[in-house]
Amino acid sequence: MNPLVRHPFISLGTMGFIAVIGLVLFRLGADTPPAQRKIPPPTVGTMVPLKADLDVFLSYTADVMPYQIVNVFSRVDGYIAKIHVDKGDFVQAGQLLIEIDHTDYVHAVNQAKANLAAANARVAQQRAVLRNAALTLDRLKALLQDQFVSQQDVDNAQVNMEAAAAALESLEAQAKQMEVALAQAETNLAYSYIRAPFAGYVAERNLDVGAYVTGATASTSTLSRGILSLHDIHIVRVLIDVVEKDVPMIAVGQKAELRTDAYPDEVFAGKVARLAQTLNRTTRTMPVEIDVINSHRRLKGGMFARVRIHVGTHRMAMQIPIDAVSRTEDAQYVFTVQGGLAHRLPVETGIRDGNWVEITKGLTGEEDVIVSGKDLVRDGMPVNVRRLDLKKP
Q: What pTM value is reported for the model?
């Protein structure tokens, strides 16, 4: 029989002794100071700062607006007789959009023509009277030399001719008035046919056939919606508000890039077209307009957009990944590796380009900058280096 089986108390005592010895050894190991334990240095990824030209962009959110917007009103009074277009239709410049009932205006033109014809007839008649008075005066002057008539007769003929001339001038002035009246009547008739002032889309239709419109509305209310609203979007205006600190960097002619949610994978090219040259007192921003060619008319008024304006280029700018920069409340710094040790260096940053940032102060450009693993190190700590080959996209 096995001795351990015959003496179970001996076997239990042996196992207990071994456990106590193991516990003592574990406690001794736990109480060993950290300085006496060997922990391998952390491995960090490093790179030398990249030096390359850096395009400087200003980014803003923006509203897309049509290049031209017009609310179409009637310039004459009357009922709408016909509307030839509807919402969403594309119209050409000069295309007939609306007809106002022009029956009264046709009558007015015909009446004006008749009045002008009568006035011209009276002018022609008076011209004949004037010619006859002039002939009479000439004959009496000839007879006066032979003393067949008196001077009084000649003077009377002179007065008659001058009266005829004055009457002719009066009738000619009346005829001019009739010409103006005819031109006004013809203009009113033409205004009863409302045409498109430019090519664009009908964005709104607010009235229907039979509605009464008046020419006074267009001149007294700029807030009225009009019969139709016409939008020209062959070019769109992109409106941004530039903050005060960026105003010196904005200039007419600068290139811009436009992105919209409607076309997330497409970039539309534009340029700065107009500067307001004044700042809003409340927001301290300056309105700026960017023109974007929209020949396919894909961009629509009212769209929300993101804009980047190219305002310059920093030549051979020193750049590192943004993740390499650590920040506190009042400082920015990076870790570099020198002689196998991590060193903390304060830096100043400039332009950010995606996941990269420009370093304007604090580095020479020859250091090994810790990009990955920087959260594992402290100033002066030994580190193992793994060189990274990072490049900007």
A: 0.68
